[in-house]
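dumping this here before i forget
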Amino acid sequence: MKKIYLSVFIFLFLFQAKAQVNVADSVIATPMFQMNYGIQLPGGDLAERFGMGQVTGLNFFYKDQSNWLYGLNFTYVYGNNVKNEADILSNIYTSDTSIIDGNGEYAEIHMYQRGYYISLMGGKLFPVFGPNPNSGITVLGGFSFMQHKIRIENPENIAYQVVGDYAKGYDQLSNGIGLTQYVGYTYMGNNRVTSFSIGFEFTQAWTQCRRDYDFVSMQKIDDQRLDLLYSLKVSWILPLYPRASTQFYY
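structure:
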């Protein structure tokens, strides 16, 4: 029993010693989870296919005691601004630019932007304009993989021209490798729930259509693409450091 009490005392002492790291006056090393949301604007070849949309995602970063950051960024890209919708399904339109479904009625068709990119990132936090040495300007860069397509939806799934494998002939699925850069401001509070960041992210990806045949152009598309994505992101950060305390407990 004495050994158990001794072990508990040692554990509490070590935990308390660790908890004395104060974010307000010390640079701390900590893992961080981030949930983010933002507005995205396509550029390059991507701007010929989509308009303004939104992004949301999850990040995991580790910040060391020199304020270097390393981590992984997953961002989901979506929107309902698909350009040239009339041209995409033009080869299955009737004379009045409608599509007839399996019941012989006019089909309800919707198109959306869908995609994502995954980035392996690294960078540094510069403690300027901040309330503590863990807050300041953050600069990141890394390698990415991007994928995007046109999602075609028929609510009742009876417009067989665009359902299942037929939809793949129109969705123009494209992917490829790229680069991502980020610059923003990070605030890390003593209270973990008050940590956040806001910044601008720029992604460039060299992609190619991955479908064997495109129904719109009636051929396989082999052209190389340069897809650009500009995003303004706001993130809520959950750092996993213990809260600072000024009291000892035994």
